[in-house]
Amino acid sequence: MGPVNWLAVLVAALAALGVAAVWNGPLFGRARLAELGPGGLGQRIMPWRTLAVTFVLLLLSSAMIGHMFARVGAATLQAKPWLYFMMSGGLAGAFVIPAMAINYMNLRVSLRLALIDAGFWMITYLTIGLTFFLMPR
What we know:
Layout: H1 6-27, H2 29-36, H3 47-72, H4 74-79, H5 83-107, H6 111-134
């Protein structure tokens, strides 16, 4: 196992936060507001706290993905660069999105909102993988 690239972990979390800002703002912010309503789950009471918690959780995800890449090793990743995307996208597709879908079914969230959020998590995890691909050790 090689060392975790902590700089890439930090940059990946910041990049993922950028994806969140664009995804939940200009791209799908209005759709989320229309779905949840201004007084419902979509209301943000403390946006700075939401931003801070989001960053910390994305940092945790980035650190775990960074650890996973360190376990695979730099030589393997250099020989098989598609693993960055296969592994990070695979985590989103096999764990995060199904867990979210189960939760959304229990909460009776619409399919539209579930697909918007599933797309967010896939793009976010692929962005994290891209960051590690662009910042190898």
